[in-house]
């Protein structure tokens, strides 16, 4: 009996472990691509070869996101020495070929029923010009997804976060929609920690890049409650012999992304384009005190009371400025108009001055000359006639 009981206990423990493992794999933060109902998206750049006929056989692939522009647009005129002119012309040729490939892939992808998207690789440089370069290159249709690709938080290599805010603002100015933010965990966490400074970046739908089976510990839950896409497979973790997921008709270094929804839901959400609602910051929330009895009993659930988002410095200056204006106005004397000085300025001239809206010396003189002493009841004139 003891041996039988021991075997039964071991089997129960094994079953519980398997159940927990299955539940973990079913989580959207732990290998969600293993769930057959999770939609997948491929993203590529110009040097990835695509066999569209084979790719279309994978019914889990819902969308295709292609690289569009890269940093600043090429110079319009080629100037300088022979080497500089050759380099300039080479950049223009690459730009033209890349855009032609981009347009061709968009036609093919949409013909196969795939959702289409484009991303801009953010580089140092004028963010407004980069946004214009992106929109002119991609020429997005209303149902095309747009992406700002921030590869890191080093302003010497990539667009600074301040410039990225302006990039997003310019995209919205031109087409009335916001892009999705693509970035890695470290940069996403920095943006989340500084959400009151980066008010646009922290509210963009997040395309999260991490090539590990689990992201729950690393994901910036204090700002985003979930991801729009998770880039889980790339050259970094996909090789000839091992890969988290292989897409037919694509090379091993192709980027594959998973959505936390099924295909139908992702098609409805595509192309996003709005800002997400940011929940109250965990650090800006106050736990509701527990009674001593509840605390000693154990297993008490803490309830957090939300605290209003702290005002920005500009908002505080504006409020204090308006209040100071009201306070200062309470001590001001009423404005008294200065009476023009004229020889023989009597009640007639005063009444004429009050009645006229003209203020130039010539117009005042004319008004004074035409004043009627009777209508003004001037006692000064009456005494002169006696």
UniProtKB/TrEMBL annotation:
A molecular function (GO) term: hydrolase activity
Record keywords: Hydrolase, Signal
Similarity remark: Belongs to the glycosyl hydrolase 25 family.
Keyword Hydrolase: yes
Signal peptide residue numbers: 1-26
Protein name listed in UniProt: Glycoside hydrolase family 25 protein
Organism: Mesorhizobium qingshengii
The keyword Hydrolase appears for this protein: yes
InterPro entries: GH, Glyco_hydro_25
